[in-house]
Specification:
Elements (H helix, E strand, L loop, with lengths): L22 H4 L8 H14 L1 H10 L9 H11 L3 E10 L3 E10 L2 E14 L2 E9 L1
Antiparallel strand pairs: 1-2, 2-3, 3-4
Helix pairs in contact: 2-3
Amino acid sequence: MFGDLAESSCPCGTGLPYAACCQPLHRGARQAETAVELMRSRYAAYAVGGTAGRDYVFRTWHPRTRPALDDLDATEATSRTLVWTGLTVHDHGDDWVEFTARYDTPDGPGELHERSRFQRRAGRWTYVDGEVS
């Protein structure tokens, strides 16, 4: 699935081609260097969807707060009606990112505004949790 998007603009909003932006992270060819890069790549994984996207989200979730894979499968099934349409990063620090993710549903558009927390674990950034407003 990720290969189909390689020359398209990355869903994370950097303006770079997917192949030069989040695809190497999704494929495990390299790790996110910052919390912002990890957050953008996680958004892109949700945007491209499928099992590969779910697996990336699972791998980058801190084990202390990560839901069971079955719960992620249920969330993915529910979110199949969502089409992620854009991402705006409002602010960030070393280990947090505030953003708005926009989406369309059959019932109309919506958005998710969150301040996410991240932690380096064994040299890799992981998503810990977030406050949705």
